[in-house]
């Protein structure tokens, strides 16, 4: 039996008489879910692109699209094998040679409920989104080539090991990662591997690369909030693939996860706006978009272990806490440009830890503290969250530092001030002036 | 000839244009500009962070007129653009040495 034909153990399992042949319904849903996760990449590009200044929107979108291309290639070559190959020891990392280049994965497995290549592609898109998220912390100031190099290296050095820890379940002869199996932490769709991982990496990268020229002095406000709203909408839509797709089946669990994902986005929006209304006097569109994403971030790990009422509480907690957390960068003066720390690290921590409080045995295998389950699960969740944070922060800080000292990661200050779109890509996003828009192109040194 | 330049609140622009047209002004140059005077800028809030936006959007009108009409036109703009609140703008007059109409080659007053 393929290691991937079993469903994640934190789901309510209905015993079946025999292992199913490849189930058409499950396979169809996973195909669609994977495509939905891919849609989150342009969603993220819009979401982030609208937030930067108009002189760097193309670079921001290119960082997300570039990461998509690099990470997916690296994933097929070696990333998947590092994450889901047989454990090399201690539950730390998979065997990179086992599935090198998707080796040995193309034969149809009659016992699996979906093809292993589909599972591998679905998981690869999670890596894509995770790396793309980091870009928001270092917007406006990085070299594109070095960013692509970073994306590939980070996938191998940071994402693949963490994905192995939490997503790779042992079954039969296959030995998986320590968090999922020995520790028993619950993370349905990536509170640790995706959200805490990208948030801690963003913090490390922002600290190592330093603040943008003019941070705290110049108004670095979002240049196009309509793009941010479009991006938030696309992300929400894609998130159903991310979360409900992680059920790896078209079943009751997928339906509960779907509802939970919907509700946490709603209450995240309301909670963020509530904080804004009382603190600043206005409910803003930027707050609404941010609140949706904060709610979705926090429900990502918890969607498979809380009830719909629990999901609403998760969204409220994340929306309110993240709305307050985005102000930390002004207190501590780190330039996390687009609040990857305030939304993804903090939201990821909220969602991962809250499982220890709100997990319900009506949905998953354990009860959290609030359902009479004691503090046992809470402790496991804290360990998983803490280890992911420390590992990701340390590894990313080292990687960014080495890249900055060797090939150079940050652009020249004059290019940063003039705008990275023009300096790096020789393009400008918006040509609204007929005087320059109508200029004849010149070729060579003409 | 005089150049009358006015910087006014954007929402007053249509009223000013209508009043000038009624007076007989047949053309003008209009631009969207930004700046600040005593009014200073305003505050915007993004994710809880307050930004002082120094520049306020304004409309700038430029009209070249006959010496005799300058005072009337300044009066019309001042009256029409007035709200009494801070940030209503300014109108000023400067001398113009010569004007040429590009299409016909007419000069000075004939070109107005």
Automatic annotation (TrEMBL), chain B:
The record's annotation in Gene3D superfamilies points to: 3.30.70.120
Tell me the keywords, alphabetical order. Answer: Nucleotide-binding, Phosphoprotein, Transcription, Transcription regulation
What family classification does the UniProt entry report for this protein? Answer: Belongs to the P(II) protein family.
This chain's protein is named Nitrogen regulatory protein P-II
- What quaternary arrangement does the UniProt entry report? Homotrimer.
Q: A Pfam family name for this chain?
A: P-II
- At the top level of its lineage, which domain of life is listed? Bacteria
Signal sequence interval, chain numbering: none
């Amino acid at each position: 039996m393929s290691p991937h034909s079993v469903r994640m153990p934190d789901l309510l399992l209905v015993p079946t008489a025999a292992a199913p042949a490849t189930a058409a319904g499950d396979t169809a849903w996973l195909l669609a879910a994977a495509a939905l996760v891919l849609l989150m990449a342009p969603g993220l590009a819009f979401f982030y692109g609208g937030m930067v200044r108009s002189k760097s929107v193309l670079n921001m979108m290119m960082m997300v699209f570039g990461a998509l291309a690099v990470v997916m290639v690296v994933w097929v070559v070696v990333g998947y094998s590092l994450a889901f190959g047989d454990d090399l020891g201690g539950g730390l990392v998979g065997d990179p040679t086992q599935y090198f280049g998707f080796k040995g994965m193309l034969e149809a497995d009659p016992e699996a409920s979906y093809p292993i290549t589909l599972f591998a592609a679905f998981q690869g898109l999670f890596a894509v989104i995770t790396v793309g998220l980091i870009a928001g912390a270092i917007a406006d100031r990085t070299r594109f080539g070095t960013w692509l190099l970073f994306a590939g290296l980070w996938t191998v050095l940071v994402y693949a090991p963490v994905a192995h820890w939490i997503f790779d379940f042992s079954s039969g002869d296959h030995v998986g990662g320590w968090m999922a199996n020995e520790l028993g932490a619950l993370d349905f769709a990536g509170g640790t591997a995706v959200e805490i991982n990208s948030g801690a990496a963003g913090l490390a990268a922002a600290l190592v690369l330093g603040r943008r020229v003019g941070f705290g002095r110049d108004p670095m406000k979002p240049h196009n909030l309509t793009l941010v709203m479009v991006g938030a909408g696309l992300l929400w839509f894609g998130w159903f693939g991310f979360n409900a797709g992680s059920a790896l089946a078209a079943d009751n669990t997928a339906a509960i996860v779907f509802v939970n994902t919907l509700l946490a986005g709603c209450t995240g929006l309301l909670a963020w706006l509530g904080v804004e209304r009382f603190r600043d006097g206005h409910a803003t569109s930027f707050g609404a978009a941010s609140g949706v994403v904060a709610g979705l971030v926090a429900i990502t790990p918890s969607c498979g272990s809380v009830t719909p009422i629990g999901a609403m509480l998760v969204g409220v907690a994340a929306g309110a806490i993240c709305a307050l957390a985005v102000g930390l960068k002004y207190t501590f003066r780190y330039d996390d440009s687009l609040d990857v720390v305030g939304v993804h690290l903090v939201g990821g921590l909220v969602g991962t830890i809250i499982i220890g409080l709100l997990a319900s045995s009506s949905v998953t295998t354990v009860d959290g503290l609030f359902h009479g389950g004691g503090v046992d699960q809470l402790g496991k969740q804290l360990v998983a969250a803490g280890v992911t944070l420390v590992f990701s922060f340390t590894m990313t800080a080292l990687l960014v530092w080495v890249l900055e000292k060797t090939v150079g990661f940050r652009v020249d200050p004059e290019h940063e001030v003039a705008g990275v779109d023009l300096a790096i890509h020789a393009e400008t996003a918006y040509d609204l002036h007929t005087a320059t828009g109508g200029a004849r192109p010149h070729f060579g040194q003409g | 000839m005089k150049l009358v330049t006015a910087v006014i609140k954007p929402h007053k622009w249509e009223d000013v244009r209508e009043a000038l047209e009624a007076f007989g002004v047949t053309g003008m140059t209009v631009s969207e500009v930004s700046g600040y005077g005593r009014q200073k800028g305003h505050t915007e809030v993004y994710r809880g962070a307050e930004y002082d936006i120094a520049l306020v959007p304004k409309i700038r009108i430029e009209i070249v007129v006959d010496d005799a009409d300058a005072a009337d036109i300044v009066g019309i703009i001042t009256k029409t653009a007035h709200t009494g609140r801070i940030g209503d703008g300014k109108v000023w007059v400067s001398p113009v040495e010569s004007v040429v109409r590009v299409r016909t080659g007419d000069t000075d007053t004939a070109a107005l």
